[in-house]
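User: My collaborator sent over this chain with a note saying "see what the structure looks like." That's all I know about it. Can you take a look?
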Amino acid sequence: MKKRSILKTMLYFLNLCAVSCLLASYMSEFISPDKFWVLAFFGLAYPVFLIINIIFVIFWLITWNRFIFVSLIAILAGFNSLQAIYPVRFSKQESTSYSKVRIVSYNVHSLYGNEKPDSKQETKSKVTEFLARQNADIICVQEFFATGEDYSQTLSKFAKSIHLGYYSFKNYRELGNKRKINAIATFSRFPIVNSGCFRLPGRSHYAIFSDVIMGRDTVRVYNLHLESIRFGSADYSFYSNLTEPDVEEPSLIKEGSKRMLWKLRRAFILRSKQVLVLKEHLASCTYPVILSGDFNDTPTSFTYHQLTGKLTDSFIESGHGLFMSTYAGKFPSFRIDYILHSDKFRSISYHTSEVDLSDHFPITTTLVKIP
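Assistant: Without extra context I'll predict from the sequence alone. Here is the result:
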């Protein structure tokens, strides 16, 4: 009886720890990593804490213990976070007679492909063919890379090949070589009448906006590529070897872990600064908004929470699936690419295309403009 009592006490303690971690992951949405970066790691691990708490709920249900409500209430308290990984809708999305706008967002990984760096040209052709088949009205591309001819010719040819007539772009860094482009680029079926870009002082550009004319209305399209973690080959090698304890010496494990944690911390903080600039710009925008791109952050993050304060996530509105991922790289998969929109639009469909052409999957949504 004494051993059973000790075991039960330990389970209560572990359950409270799991609940505390889950609540900390919720807090990460509201507290900037620039102020307290540790919470960002809890937000990153939200799916793990959620699953642990679900296991506790099932266990307490089987044993018919009232402690079930501790984890159950904690899970329900984060209903918005739960919605972001598994949308629950109580009404069916219906087709509409209003005009539709099809949006695609795709980080093309510099057109290098996912694991075939020696077949760049082939991958580039396949990416172009894929985008051409989408019959999209607006395509937002991140990491668009090309060399060999004047960038205006490159972009014009690419726009024509995907059946779109207008484009705007901005190189991540200012390049003196006009025969090279490494940029965020937006391609549109609609005329683009104005554009702009964003960057923090002394750093790369991380977003552009394009004002497009849709019928009688002007719509502002934001295309984002927020700060990457910038893991290198040493980090990928270290991560791969973590499952083989005999491969790495303890000192190397410590060094590799510290290096990766530092890079994560740096990225969390830079994204928080980037997103606050974007949030201020959004607040001053008088046009309907479509915002898409690679956030490099999960739905349980300060970045996502700031941008979805007044914008709707098209995945939540019309997507399907549990723990859907848009990242196809070597690290654990997360949904880090998004298409958001203001209340002047409604999403009636959302799709992730699992094509092996990049370390990201392209996402597509169809929006209707609400009169």
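A starting point for your reply to your collaborator: The first strand starts at residue 100 and ends at 107.
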